[in-house]
Design goal:
This protein is an alpha+beta fold. The chain is built from twelve helices and 14 strands.
């Protein structure tokens, strides 16, 4: 009986050891995070009837303007929303002149009822705040705006808008570079279904009250900005008792008004950046803690923390490199690559790229950002553009990372990111926007034929991209140069387990032999 118990216990112990050994290899198993993502065009409140309101080519509308979409009406009391930025670049990296206030005070009237909304009716909500031009807005095209909600004392006040989480700062994305007005909506919502942080978005039509008249500004995508907060990037806190900080960083075109982080890789590569990169003007800057609140201690801690991660990923030492999975949230990096490669988001990983790390957490890529120009260049349909992006150029050297990447990609292509679903989402969203698209098209001087052609090209290009990526994503295997967390660790686990089982078996044999000798001696005595 004792012999049987010993053997059973030994086998169970060995099985547990094997599970733990292989479990250590398969860390951070990917899972789809839905999180209740809302697709506006599929929501229960989506009306079945479009509004017949029209708009003139100069944007003037009457006081009876109506829409099946939510309407945001801005009243600046006659003040012009000025663009005071210096045109140092075409990105949000532009800065404001000294002592210039870029904001214009406003009242915001929101019309968001079931069915048809009209600016002649009582607003659903009335708020106050200030608004400014943001981003790489063109002079003649639709501008991008950022606004901040304020209380009567001029302090920020958080409020939920159009069913999204409460916040005091919001972005109005005019999608000027996207004729279809579909790209950002598609990308942000797909990202929200993956293991990625993604801003919530809602379509709306924007009206500016200009004296006694109303001017139509176009179809906009109300978007949550990237910032720390509940419902945004939910960091626990900015500092703990041992001096560690939570932080958000952004890699983008140089901004002279931001805190640039000079990490180990930037010094090694001779660039101000994050593990090399392809654009010398692309730098890593601090988003949170905010500029006006950041301390030298915080900058030093964050710089050193990122430098440590850079050194681990760049290390040629097997044991050092193998520890990257304890520092980096590989789930997010895998989904980020898949989404941006599939949507042909040129510059992803190098520009408009956010990352954050919570106290006690891992470095996570996201929230996702900047999709107005995705799937635009036909030549990108047969390229793997992220292979040389910062961080990825090291992660893709790892066999285990690539195996998980390919497995995750194949599973997502079966449903969430299938060609059929993406094509259907584009078609359904276009149908839902209906007359709002027509009004926006008239305002921008785009013919119906040009719009139809742009939509067809977008759908066709994404389909072509999907077919090519199905065949060629595995080409990234050529980048594998080390395999510390894959084959070597599995081999070590198997060898250790085999040695343990052999030792247990030898012990059992010795015990059995001794028991037999003891019986023989007893019988002879």
């Amino acid at each position: 009986m004792k012999k049987t118990l010993i053997l059973v216990f030994s086998v169970l112990f060995a099985a547990v050891f094997l599970l733990l050994a292989f479990g250590a290899v398969k860390q951070n198993i990917l899972h789809v995070v839905d999180g209740g993502r809302i697709w506006q065009h599929l929501s229960e409140n989506a009306p079945a009837v479009n509004s017949p309101s029209s708009v003139s080519s100069d944007g003037r509308v009457d006081a009876a303007f109506s829409s099946h979409l939510p309407i945001l009406l801005i009243d600046t009391d006659g003040s012009v929303i000025s663009d005071l930025r210096h045109d140092e670049s075409s990105s949000e990296a532009s800065r404001y002149g000294d002592n210039l206030n870029p904001y214009t005070e406003m009242d915001l009237f929101i019309y968001d009822e079931d069915g048809i909304n009209s600016i002649s009716s009582v607003p659903s909500r009335t708020l106050s705040g200030k608004i400014k031009v943001r981003g790489g807005s063109t002079t003649d095209g639709k501008k991008q705006y950022r606004f901040k909600l304020l209380d009567p004392y001029g302090d920020g006040v958080k409020s939920p808008l159009l069913g999204m989480s409460a916040g005091d700062e919001w972005i109005l994305n005019g999608m000027d570079s996207d004729i279809t007005c579909l790209r950002s909506y598609l990308a942000y919502n797909l990202a929200g279904e993956l293991s990625l942080d993604s801003p919530d978005v809602r379509f709306c039509e924007l009206i500016l009250k200009d004296g006694g008249e109303y001017r139509y500004l176009g179809l906009y995508l109300l978007t949550e900005p990237v910032e720390r907060g509940e419902g945004r990037v939910a960091l626990k806190g900015k500092k703990n008792l041992i001096g560690a900080y939570s932080y958000i960083v952004k890699r983008d075109i140089a901004d002279s008004g931001s805190v640039v982080l000079s990490t180990w890789a930037s010094q090694e590569a001779g660039l101000s950046g994050f593990i090399g990169g392809t654009a010398a003007s692309s730098v890593l800057t601090l988003v949170y803690p905010k500029n006006e609140k950041v301390t030298t201690d915080a900058v030093s801690y964050i710089t050193n923390d990122l430098s440590r991660i850079e050194q681990v990923l760049a290390s040629k030492d097997i044991s050092t490199f193998a520890s990257f999975s304890r520092l980096v949230d590989t789930d997010s990096f895998i989904d980020y690559l898949i989404l941006n490669e599939l949507l042909m988001n040129r510059g992803a990983g190098t520009t408009s790229t956010y990352m954050y790390r919570d106290i006690g957490g891992k470095l996570t890529i996201g929230p996702v950002w900047g999709f107005n120009s995705t799937a635009t260049h036909r030549e990108d349909a047969e390229l793997l553009s992220m292979a040389g992006a910062p961080l990825y150029q090291d992660l893709l050297k790892n066999r285990t990372f690539q195996d998980r990447l390919l497995d995750r990609y194949r599973r997502l292509r079966e449903d969430t990111l299938s060609d059929e679903r993406i094509s259907s989402l584009l078609r359904e969203t276009r149908d839902y926007l209906g007359s709002a698209l027509e009004r926006d098209r008239v305002l921008r001087g785009i013919t119906e034929e040009a719009y139809d052609s742009a939509c067809e090209e977008l759908s066709r290009l994404l389909g072509t991209r999907g077919i090519w990526l199905d065949r060629h994503l595995g080409d990234l295997n050529s980048l594998v140069v080390t395999d510390p967390s894959g084959t070597l660790r599995r081999a070590a686990a198997v060898l250790l387990s085999a040695a343990f089982l052999l030792a247990v078996f030898s012990l059992a044999v010795r015990l059995k032999t001794r028991r037999r000798l003891f019986r023989l001696r007893s019988e002879h005595s």
